[in-house]
Amino acid sequence: MATAAATMVSSAGGLLAMLNESHPQLKFHAVTNLISFVDQFWPEISTSIPIIESLYEDEEFGQHQRQLAALLVSKVFYYLGELNDSLSYALGAGPLFDISEDSDYVHTLLAKAIDEYASLRSKAAESSDGAAEIDCRLEAIVERMLDKCIIDGKFQQGMGVAIDCRRLDKLEESIIRSDNVHATLAYSTHVSHSFIYRREYRREVLQLLVKLYQKLPSPDYLSTSQCLMFLDEPEGVANILEKLLRSDNKEDALLAFQVAFDLVENEHQAFLLNVRDRLPAPKSLPSESLQPESSDPAPIQNENSTAAEDVQMIDGSSASMTDVLEADPKEVMYAERLTKIKGILSGETSIQLTLQFLYSHNKSDLLILKTIKQSVEMRNSVCHSATIYANAIMHAGTTVDTFLRDNLDWLSRATNWAKFSATAGLGVIHRGHLQQGRSLMAPYLPQGGAGGGGSPYSEGGALYALGLIHANHGEGIKQFLRDSLRNTNVEVIQHGACLGLGLAALGTADEDIYDEVKTVLYTDSAVASEAAGISMGLLMVGTASEKASDMLAYAHETQHEKIIRGLALGIALTVYGREEEADTLIEQMTQDQDPILRYGGMYALALAYRGTANNKAIRQLLHFAVSDVSDDVRRTAVLALGFVLYSEPAQVGCVFTHLCVGCDQCFMHLFVHNFLTVLYLWICHWAINF
């Protein structure tokens, strides 16, 4: 009957006329029925919006009637496309706005409400005073939506909305009430890394996840340790490892080793060393006895020997330890496990295993190198150097230097910087050979640390090679490199020592090393100071240190382009992974008059937002890619897009389509298209491997 009656209505004019009646019941009847017909007659009803609005604002009209009027106005504004006004009146409708209704109207306004609420919450969090005006009615609608997700069992949807709206209380509730807490915690961790673009907010989410992980009946130590690493809390990781190592259950000890291996994969040297140093020594054994085995150079192995001996992870017994700790078997067990895990955290165990793998699976074809060598003219220094580089890359990390040993006379033809690079190539081949790195490079190193009778290019290259061998694991070689840097005034040797020292102390933010490298920078030598600028960045990589301001100030003072370029790269390295924290420094560099510093600003953007696909960073890079007057800056901006987008290769085509459309001049078309193919292949390769 109702359906038949509805189809007979051809106009809402009669109901609209009743709105002008004086009796409240007639108005209430009109509003109630108009809501039923608004989907059909909204164009006609829209002419009476002022009258319906006045009913909503009339305090003498009953609360329920006023909410009905608000709902009616909201629906009319929705059909008119005025979503802001529609949402405003939907908030006034209170409980009459039914979030469970399955209609386009409700779905659209819920999405609008969530976006508006999330925007206001973000502005409040990012403002200095932390205050923002948020309509309590808007908050009530979002909370009703979140509660409905939890009640309906749509936990992932609820977690996504809670994270977007910065409601960590609702995120916690969604996780706790889910059917599979472990799975939802893992999902939340994934979302926090993939979709939260503000670093500080991501830290807040991870801190909550750590708290929830620790409350589990069977804690997930692997995931907890990963979160603590991103939060830079080595003390928490050390406590977990100590608990597992002291357990009587052998499985717990193996889990501790696995946690350590997972942490080492991230290659965060400073964090790993902090964790290692916070692991307490056994109660009955001096801490000196627990350091990893000495890394003093052993006799040089020939190229046919294995890179390292097999590494055993099962509990063993040391005669000396047993003698010391006979009275306390638990401390003996802990001491043995502690020695192993310190070896893992120092990187030595992983490096040994990597060397074994690379050596045993080396499939490089020396015949290719021999053919290249025979095809290259002896006087062609460029091709000569290229062949040396090819050999280094083909045998990177394998410790196989057969080609160089068999062609020493041919290798000796390299001169000046080609000799520097040829010697440094040995560091690429023997990367990770910590036990014998210094012995292998001994014939080329400065005698007594002060530069002997050999070529300074070979000696500088040898120091650089030591840095490559010990990259990110330089505890055993840092002092030698520091001594070499202090004891020479030859700028080429200083160049190699600075680069080697930066690699060996990567990310450690060692103040003493920084001061020594800064001394070299202030000599204002084009060769040595350029390397010093890069080295300072390597030392402070990812720290967002205030020392970047000093580096930027000196870049403005010096007249050497080489030094400015080295400092520009060094400054960019300091903001690696710091995202919005780097915005102030990026702004300074990208607005600088010096094109070299703007070039560094592109790299700062690339490294600060690497892999985030951050829209703000992409917009900035696209702007500079088509508008900067410097070819170097434009080229670097295009390359920097690859760093920002490497985790989202599917977006590359769309981004570069817009870039190419914006290139009106012919030379810019050529410029962009030359890089497009290379960059796309590089991003795809990175995505596949990582």
How large, in whole angstroms, is the Cα Rg? Answer: 33 Å
Characterize the overall form.
elongated
Q: What is the number of strand segments?
A: 0
β-sheet strand percentage:
under 5%
Largest sheet: none
How far the N terminus sits from the C terminus, by CA atoms, comes to 64 Å
Name the helicity range. 55-70%
Total helices: the number is 38
Mean pLDDT: 83
| Helical/strand content category | mainly alpha
Low-confidence stretches are 1-6, 292-325, 661-690
Subunit structure: Component of the 19S regulatory particle (RP/PA700) base subcomplex of the 26S proteasome. The 26S proteasome is composed of a core protease (CP), known as the 20S proteasome, capped at one or both ends by the 19S regulatory particle (RP/PA700).
GO molecular function: enzyme regulator activity
Organism: Gossypium raimondii (Peruvian cotton)
InterPro entries: 26S_Psome_Rpn2, ARM-like, ARM-type_fold, Proteasome/cyclosome_rpt, PSMD1_RPN2_N
Task: Please outline the helices and strands.
Blueprint: H1 2-8, H2 13-18, H3 24-45, H4 49-57, H5 63-80, H6 83-92, H7 104-126, H8 136-151, H9 155-164, H10 168-176, H11 181-195, H12 199-215, H13 221-230, H14 234-245, H15 250-265, H16 269-278, H17 319-324, H18 329-345, H19 348-360, H20 366-375, H21 381-394, H22 402-406, H23 408-411, H24 416-429, H25 437-441, H26 456-469, H27 478-486, H28 491-504, H29 511-521, H30 526-539, H31 547-557, H32 561-574, H33 583-590, H34 595-608, H35 615-627, H36 631-645, H37 652-661, H38 666-689
Helix pairs in contact: 3-5, 4-5, 5-6, 7-8, 8-9, 9-10, 9-11, 11-12, 12-13, 13-14, 13-15, 14-15, 14-16, 15-18, 21-24, 24-26, 26-28, 27-28, 28-30, 29-30, 30-32, 31-32, 32-34, 33-34, 34-36, 35-36, 36-38, 37-38
GO molecular function: enzyme regulator activity
Domain 26S proteasome non-ATPase regulatory subunit 1/RPN2 N-terminal: 11-282
Keywords: Proteasome, Repeat
